[in-house]
Amino acid sequence: MARTQGSHALTTGPKLREAALRLFAQKGYAAVSMRQIAAEVGVQVGALYNYTEDKQSLLFDLLQSHMQDLMAAWQVAQAGLMTPSQRLEAFTRFHIRYHLTRTDAVFISYMELRNLTPENFAKIETLRRAYEAQLQSILTEGQASGDFDLHDSKITALAVIAMLNGVLTWFRSDGRLSLDRVEGIYWDMVRRAVGCAP
Amino acid sequence: MARTQGSHALTTGPKLREAALRLFAQKGYAAVSMRQIAAEVGVQVGALYNYTEDKQSLLFDLLQSHMQDLMAAWQVAQAGLMTPSQRLEAFTRFHIRYHLTRTDAVFISYMELRNLTPENFAKIETLRRAYEAQLQSILTEGQASGDFDLHDSKITALAVIAMLNGVLTWFRSDGRLSLDRVEGIYWDMVRRAVGCAP
DNA sequence: GTCTATAATGGGATAGAC
DNA sequence: GTCTATCCCATTATAGAC
What we know:
The structure is a homodimer.
Chain A: H1 9-27, H2 34-41, H3 45-48, H4 55-78, H5 84-100, H6 103-111, H7 118-145, H8 153-165, H9 167-170, H10 179-193
Helix pairs in contact in A: 1-2, 1-6, 4-5, 4-6, 4-7, 5-7, 5-10, 7-8
Chain A binds a DNA duplex through helix 3.
């Protein structure tokens, strides 16, 4: 028979983060109350404050973890790839695949930036820029080697990421197109947009 | 000497809409109070309810007007254009230019959809899909005529719009690149992404 | 049309018992 | 570590005076 009181330190922390991530993505940070989160976790509101300093820290920690995990995963995914073309295809497919498995985190990473304190906002922005710089360096390299033909590596990097993020708004795994097919279509569009021969 | 009471019917309505648009874009619908809006307008909170049924209607009216204005402006912009290539270039430049002058409305049109009631959400979605369909029909037409070479007109339309929307996050009129130059760079990327010869 | 005052509800966060 | 109870403050929306 389930306890209704007592210690659940091993599960409450992760459950808090999961519930907050889901609710923030669904309803927005400002529209979600600590009471709602507590109800999802299955504790009373007071208990949450054993795991987070306040609501703001909760949002910040979720965004920071997401960006750090993203950077780490990309470092692994791109290891050993040599040519700009290989690396660009890898980035395209990685970005789509990785983000599609974490749509909630991606969503709040774009939508809830304005609900961060200025200090926290600056930290997340730094991480986000570092990720964008990864793509930009691929483009610059390909431009220098003559593999790519593009006007401006910074703008192109932002345009490519914006285009890839668009996938998240409509892709459904039970939809008309498989993930692999979608990756292929986007890779073809990216490839041509940067002037890279097939 | 300024009146602090009395009728301001001719200015309060528009000022309410302007203030709400700006504040919703800055802080998010849920994070903005009717008191804050009233302070911006320069009236007490009770007076706002002469101009809007409630906060939800305020958001819905802003989004609906934005989408209706957008569609009307595009109808004008594309009138008389014949070839798929001309129409696609017109769409690209129109979308960038039009949205850059209304960043607040664009922002809330994407961010605050989840704060609409289901009924209101459905209405805005219908308008948004109609706009996307404009681009899709250009792509389908260009595909049929052989002017374009692309895999899927629906996905391509969504990808192009997502890419163009990316401009809004970084463009500054006093920045490194002029609006005309930016339009040109994006048109080149769009053109190549859809397999359209120069 | 706008004001002031108020109703009714819910918010984040904390104290102290267990 | 969690609970209950509570503080204090903000919220949307309305009523009635001017």
